[in-house]
Write a structure and sequence with these properties.
Blueprint (H helix, E strand, L loop, with lengths): L11 H47 L12 H28 L7 H24 L4 H10 L1 H14 L5 H21 L2
Keywords: Amino-acid biosynthesis, Cell inner membrane, Cell membrane, Membrane, Transmembrane, Transmembrane helix, Transport
Protein name: Sulfate transporter CysZ
InterPro entries: CysZ-like, CysZ/EI24
């Protein structure tokens, strides 16, 4: 039969625990992979939306040295930077989630991390339109951690509601651009 035939009966619970953890990890990876792909395809449109929102808020368009031919490669590069930022933190959260005792703080950490990532994702469009690097954006957000988490929390929670999550991206881009203009630009 199966590999479980090699182990004592009392280890069957461990089998289901490992499968559960693996399932959660794979689902998180699938979610982030599809989000990554969606963000790459929508990035040029989101950048344009962000420019228009910033122009509306400040009465002037952001000044960028990026040409139309650089938009897609730059967007892909920024999305890869975000992915490289997320993966080690995601792995650490999964490990915290599976360690007994420590995992009691796991739900709060997931909530805070999700809120932080929503702010990072949506404020990045305003930063990118103003030629601010991803690293500089992270530094600015770290100086305003509390405001960043407060901005990202509703977006993260709305992401879990079917239907609402489909219209969240343009609303998030507009809100992230406003957050950029009001909290991070200067």
């Amino acid at each position: 039969g199966s590999i479980m035939g090699w182990f004592p009966d009392w280890m069957s619970a461990l089998y289901w625990l490992v499968w559960g953890i693996a399932f959660i990890f794979v689902m998180a990876l699938v979610f982030f992979f599809f989000s990554f792909i969606a963000n790459i395809f929508s990035s040029p449109f989101n950048s344009l939306l962000s420019v228009k929102v910033e122009e509306h808020l400040t009465s002037s368009a952001p000044v960028s040295q990026v040409t139309i031919w650089q938009v897609v490669p730059r967007a892909v590069g920024r999305e890869i930077s975000k992915l490289l930022y997320v993966l080690p933190r995601l792995t650490l959260l999964v490990l915290i989630t599976i360690v007994p005792g420590v995992n009691i703080v796991s739900p709060l950490l997931w909530l805070m991390f999700g809120a932080w990532m929503m702010t990072l994702q949506y404020a990045d469009y305003g930063a990118d339109n103003n030629d601010v690097s991803f690293r500089a954006l992270k530094e600015r957000l770290q100086r305003r951690r509390f405001q960043a988490v407060l901005f990202g929390m509703p977006a993260y929670l709305l992401l879990t509601i079917p239907g609402v999550n489909l219209v969240l991206m343009p609303i998030g881009v507009a809100g992230g651009t406003r957050f950029w203009v009001e909290q991070l630009k200067h």
